[in-house]
Every structure is written in C-alpha cells, then in structure tokens.
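Notes to self, Helix-turn-helix transcriptional regulator:
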Amino acid sequence: MVKVETLEIFYRDKIGRAPENLRQGAGHFDIFKTDYTLDQPLPNPEAYRRRDFYKISLSHGKSEVQFADKTVQIKKQALLFLNPQIPCSGDLSQVNNSFCIVFNQHFFHRYGNLHEYPVYQPGGTHIFELTDEQVRDVENIFQRMLEEKVSDYVYKYDVLRNLTLELIHFALKTQLRSATQVTPPHNAAERIATLFTTLLEQHYAIDDTTQQVSLRSAADFARHMNIHVNHLNRALKAATGNTTSHIIAARCLSEAKSLLKQSSWSIAEIAYSLGFLEPTHFNAFFKKQTGTSPRKFRNV
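result:
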C-alpha cells in the first residue's frame, strides 16, 4: 500500500524520540533547532511519499526537491513548506535544516484554513530561495517560536499559531521567487512514469484482507500525484506506449492472479482488497481480461 510518513515515523526516524503528548486526533506542534540533516538522502523513487503532517523548515545547502511534474533546485538556502496534499521526494544529502517546525491539521482546527494560502495549494510555490538578509529575518521568527515553546504563558500555542502564519505571510508578502524549476524535456515523461509506477506498486502491495485499494482510476492517481490527469496520461503514453487505464488494469489483474493462486482468501475477500464494491464486478473484470472466471483460474 502507499506508504505515508506519519508524525510517529518522523519522530522515530529523524528525531529518535517521540513526545508524550503525541495523540491521534489532538493538535500537535513542535520546533527543532538543529545542526544536522533531518531529512536523509532520498536517491530513489521509493522516497516519493506523502506526509500526514505539515512541515516548515529553513534549509542551508544545495538540494533538489522533486514533485510529480517539476524539479526545484535550491542553490544556497530556502524556506520549505511541505504538507499532506503535496507528495514529493528529494536529494537533501547536503542540506542542514537549521530550524524546523512540524504540526498537524488539528493544531489549526477552528483557527482558519491553511489551504487558502498559495504555499499549501496544488500548483503553488512551496519552496522559496532566500537572500542572506531574508534568512536572518526568518531565523528571528523561528527563534521567537523556540522561546515561546518553552514559556509558561497559558496562551503560548495561540502565539505559536500566529508565528507560523507570520512565516507564511513572510513568504507571500516579500513575493520570494521560487528556486529554478526545471522540467527536462527529454526525461520528464520518464520521471512521471517512474513515480507513477512506484506509487502503483506500493498501492497494490496487498498483504492482508484488511487492506483495500483506493486508487483505481487515472484521475485517482493524478490527484494523488498532484498533477492533471491529462498530463499523467500524456506522460505515460509517451514513456510506455500504453494508456494509464491499461497499466492500472494490468497491475490489478496481476495482483488478482497472484492472490488467487498463492492465497487462501475467498474470491469476495480478494475482490474487496482490489477495490471492487461487489464480487460480481470483480468477476466481470477478470473474465473480460482473461476470458475465464476467477474460480476457474484458481482451480486450473
């Protein structure tokens, strides 16, 4: 299934500890001042993932962040806004995140909609290259956050919310230019195809009967990758010669054959895991693709 970096995984892998107040459904905010890289090098497509939390970081050093349809190159230093709606990967091996905050959607519950801001909208700018002077201004905001976080002020989380918004408005008001966005004309389609294939393989890696495929159409995958469905269709056609629907159906059929031959699950359980609402729909799909029924295929 699709792997999502949760706050629990973030703390385990990047920080080495988990706060005691980390609870499902509760507001959470934390800030770190670091002299090491919070993000490990991400050299392969498997690093293309979503998070279930928001992250704003000030990074120093050259790096490259890949979204589904573009690559953003950071030359020196940048302010990064990452969120649950925009999956990405990147080579951050030379990056030092001097400041980083993480928070979940519940932290801003009843305090406004973050997705009204371009930094959190699909197609918006999520990475801002900074001048040395701008870095000092941003560091000042983060430093105020650090001081507020350890204060005894009863309304300190209101202040931290305001300071988070101040970071967002700093980026918007100064109209910072994003790092150079490069979409190489000769490999953009191949890169999208690679990201799609990785996502497809992760999504159809079914291990037990409680898992269920939720991305079944080209439009579903396009939304998950944060690109237009026509862009995805063109890229896959150029890279593979096949349509998106054909590739999805082929992968679904492959998983169905594997489960029918290698598992003891009932046909109804297999149908459910593959995202079919009714076993009859699965039977019709399988017979259309193979000319035989799932039951006959299993018994051969």
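- Residues 4-179 form a domain with the Jelly Rolls fold (CATH 2.60.120).
- The longest strand covers residues 96-103.
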